[in-house]
Design brief:
Strand content: under 5%
Largest sheet: none
Mean pLDDT: 66
Oligomer: single chain
Shape: elongated
Number of strands: 0
Distance between the termini: 71 Å
Low-confidence stretches: none
Structural class: mainly alpha
Radius of gyration: 18 Å
């Protein structure tokens, strides 16, 4: 019985953390993106640092790392496109 209660409390705690991550992290990332729209490399560094911090201290770090990686893919693509445009404009 105690194992079932521990399992249930762990599931509820994980669900609460997951819901908070699902709700607030994209909003925070969007705000950071707006603030650093002119400097996408800074945004990439912030994402990498937050990935390392969350995966180290939060139980659901792997989930958060995966979610941040998926969210950050378009940002990295935009950064690569911007770098390519700079090189094209130089040559």
């Amino acid at each position: 019985m105690e194992q079932e209660e521990n399992l249930l409390s762990e599931i509820l705690r994980s669900a609460g953390i997951g819901l908070a991550i699902y709700t607030y992290v994209p909003l925070i990332i969007y705000l950071i993106y707006i603030l650093s729209e002119l400097n996408l490399s800074l945004f990439g560094i912030i994402l990498l640092v937050s990935n390392k911090v969350f995966s180290k201290y939060v139980d659901t770090g792997k989930f958060l790392y995966l979610m941040l990686t998926i969210i950050s893919i378009p940002v990295y693509i935009a950064l690569i496109v911007r770098i390519v445009r700079i090189f094209i404009s130089i040559f």
